[in-house]
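Protein record

Derive tokens from sequence
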Amino acid sequence: MKKLRVTVEGKSYEVLVEIVGESASPLPASAPPAIASAPQAPASIAAPIASSPPTPAAQPAAAGDIPSPLAGKVVSIDVKVGDAVTEGAQVATVEAMKMNTYIYAPKAGTVSAILANPGDGVEEGSALIRIS
């Protein structure tokens, strides 16, 4: 495991990275792997290391909930509380890596709760909508 600092859009994050298949490396076992170092900004202007705050939609999906199939940002919720939905109806859109993923109702029912709002960041498996 190696601890690395990654900067994305001016925010620094410390991450642990597992090197897989390092034994197949052409370097001798006694030689440390070469790591290219990126130029560092002076400490006075360096961005603080940030951790993302938990989002309200980060609750795991329960029975009757429609989960997000991936981590991303909710683009739209296409139903309202009280709407009747059929199996396969589009109910939401989540964006990840600049691609939209459409979320469909896994069963027919009535929307009893909206658990995420457009603009919310969600994790994979987070509940978006509850159908009863």
User: Anything to note?
Assistant: The first strand starts at residue 2 and ends at 8. Residues 56-131 form a domain with the OB fold (Dihydrolipoamide Acetyltransferase, E2P) fold (CATH 2.40.50.100). The chain has two domains: 1-21+41-51, 56-131. The two ends are 45 Å apart (CA to CA).
